[in-house]
Amino acid sequence: MVELLGDLFSIEPDFMVDPARQEVGLKGLLEDPLRALVLVARAPGAEQAVGMVTLQVLVSTAEGGQVGLVEDLVIHPEWRGQGLGAALLAELQHQARLRGLTRLQLLADQENTPALEFYGRQGWDRTRMICLRLKEDRDAKAL
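Below the sequence we write its predicted structure tokens.
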């Protein structure tokens, strides 16, 4: 899964490929099943992950309850176009409904046209919101 995240972050200029950090992040998600979900698509007959998606549960004051932040939907380039991304996203939505989440949201790079078109085909709508971010001071390892 760390390799898949490397594929994803290599095309997103806002993020940096750092396998050690990605591994720590994945472990954090996997160790918190009440607030996170990781779904993986595997190659038939193999242990290799060829796709993945993650979900983090948040509390929304606008919704008055729990919502989900979808992150890290990525399919290995050799496996794209075969419906794996749509299947992962559909299962994620199913799991979100079972958890009682009232909204899902995600961020996508505004220049990643294939991803934006994919999400549109899956029924996702663009909003008027934009993402702002405060990055950590890498030397201090904190904000």
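The longest helix spans residues 84-98.
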